[in-house]
Amino acid sequence: MVRAYSQEHTYKHPWERVTAASWRKFADPENKRTLSHILEVDTLNHKLDPSSGKLYTTRAITIHAPGPWFVRKIIGQDICHCVESTVVNAQSRSMQLATRNISLQKFIEVEEKIRYEPHPANPIDWTICKQETSIRIKPLSTLASMAEKIEQRCVDRFQQNSAKGREVMERICKYLEAESRGISLRS
Amino acid sequence: MGIMREKKSPSSSATSPCAHLRTAYHNCFNRWYAEKFLKGEWNKQECVSEWEKYRECLSQHLDDKHLSRFLEAEGIIDFTNQAEYKNPTGVSN
């Protein structure tokens, strides 16, 4: 049982601004209320390849994911740890993020891939975001009979949260745009 | 993050003691990313001292057993000696 879905979104902001916003998405305190399911984001590792202009980053993301009471009872916790790997290629202007859960793997596997690239129709000023999510409930898990329902709940929740994520991204982009205008006005 | 949530899920605040070091590192990183990295100055990684202080704090407080065991097994993190970066999710570029 695998549910997969993909989404596309166009940001009417240049790639540089959108990727800068992506780094700030979970870190800015003012977004905490909107993205209240994100409890902690910690950078675990980073590496810069100076010859190719690629930046590799690994972060741990702790998510608050309360489910129905019987799920909490079986799983024994309502937080979930995820690992997010990011590769930014400054030369080709691409950013790829892949996130997967590391807790509760016995029951469920969620993988989310996001790519930010210059929009083909307007590569200088716009950015296209392609997002792919797959959710898989383990068939042999004790939750098998309820799995179908839970899977749908997960999909719903992911879609709600990615809509919130886009909202936050748009807000940070606007903020960065205003900031860059302010700087250029002063200079 | 409210007090209520911290009470509900205590391990969520495991790395909170490092919050101010994390903020210092993020601020430095965001500046470096926008002003240097995106403008082609990718020959040198900056924010080294901010990163080392934050990492040192993390190594003391990342006490969620499941998380740290997993990270060590995957080679993502090794606080005893600087581990090579290993990509756990297969993003390639």
From TrEMBL, chain A:
Annotated Pfam families: PRELI
Domain of life per record: Eukaryota
GO-annotated cellular components: mitochondrial intermembrane space
Record InterPro entries: PRELI/MSF1_dom, Slowmo/Ups
Signal peptide (residue range): none
Residue intervals of the PRELI/MSF1 domain: 2-181
Organism listed in the record: Olea europaea subsp. europaea
PANTHER family xrefs: MSF1/PX19 RELATED (PTHR11158)
Protein name: PRELI/MSF1 domain-containing protein
Automatic annotation (TrEMBL), chain B:
Swiss-Prot/TrEMBL keywords: Disulfide bond
GO annotation, biological process: phospholipid translocation
The keyword Disulfide bond belongs to this UniProt entry's keyword annotation: yes
Family annotation (InterPro entries): MDM35_apoptosis (IPR007918)
One Gene Ontology CC term in the entry: nucleus
Molecular function GO terms recorded: phosphatidic acid transfer activity
Annotated family: Belongs to the TRIAP1/MDM35 family.
PANTHER family: TP53-REGULATED INHIBITOR OF APOPTOSIS 1 (PTHR46403)
Protein name, entry field: Uncharacterized protein At4g33100
